Amino acid sequence: MEGPRVDPITKLAREDARQDLGHNADLRWFAYGTGCWVFAVVHASVSTPTVPSDRLLGKTPKYVNAYTEAYKSSIKNRRMEISAVGWVVSMAATLWLWTIFTD
Fold this sequence. Notes:
Number of domains: 1
Low-confidence stretches: none
Mean pLDDT: 88
Distance between the termini: 61 Å
Strand content: under 5%
Number of helices: 4
Order of helices and strands: HHHH
Shape: elongated
Radius of gyration: 18 Å
Largest sheet: none
Number of strands: 0
């Protein structure tokens, strides 16, 4: 059984957007998660990422729309994941230090 048919331009735009995820400062969002805890995760979920305009020059409107949608969705999810990991690491370190210094 086949899924819904995806236009080749849309497929290419989504693939390009996912390839560009590696350039989005994961360490910064991890630091936000460790320092700001749940507020960083909330900020990551409500903020709107900026799409790199140089990737859209000379592309068709269909490509631009598909790329923009995929990029924003992927970046937002990645930021939420990384900041949540930072939050969990920070909470674990806090609890560990709490047990050390309260005994």
